[in-house]
Amino acid sequence: MLDTDRERKQAVFEDLGDRSLYAWLKCRRDPERIEAIYRKVLDISVRLHTDVSRHAAECQLLASRVFDYEHLRWETSYFMERFVSDYMGMTIQDGHALKEEFQVLAETADSFPKAIVHRDFQSQNLMIAKGEIPRVIDFQGARIGPPAYDIASLLWDPYYRLDADMRERLVCYYMKKMRADSADDFFQDEFRYSLHLCRLQRHMQALGAYGFLSGMKGKRYFLKHIPQAMEYLTEEISESVQDFPVLHDLITKLHELYHREISGRWKN
Fold first, then answer.
1. Domain 14-67+114-186: which topology?
2. Buried (b) or exposed (e) across 93-120, using 16+ Cβ within 10 A?
3. How confident is the model at residue 268 (pLDDT cuts 50, 70, 90)?
């Protein structure tokens, strides 16, 4: 006998095709068209960081998954183990001072207001469906964390480098939309600072992943994305010399070593 009182659940499926934003960007596109598609993607992130986040408590599993200090410290440990040690073969002399800076970085990033974040919000996890409508996939890693992490993942994506002026316009577009939706709960200066720290976190995590996937998993095609991630990380740490002097020294040495000895390995 069927239980007529049992709650019925439904799932909706959509065929998104096989064209990711990463693939879409490989074709020649006018800058205006590229900026327009990124604005559509940012509209998704704004909704995720505002309307959807207001209902986070309705999903008990998600509400308990917080991207906090421990996870942020895991990212920098992953970077040190899988990229600095395993891939680059570098030995760290001043490990204690570096750990202290990683702790400060994680504590500060963890202190910002949190919302639902995708955590891997980059061009290979965004599909371009019919009508050039973006759709998000691979969201099983979503957590409650700083929204700037998603914006860092999208606009400073090692898979595709945006023009700097366009990127700044897109950051301003996101902030304008967030201010309109969040009223007095969104502070531009605070977000800018959180974005800088999340960029540091994100690119160390990405380099750790590239080292792991290429070295341990044999997926050598990830090696081609290391130079851009290194460039981002070098640019970011140059703005934080006073806050993170030991990390600045490490990343500067990594950048020099990579271009002097490592960069040609994956081509051979």
1. Aminoglycoside 3'-phosphotransferase; Chain: A, domain 2 (3.90.1200)
2. eeeeebbebbeebbeebbebbbbbbbbb
3. very low
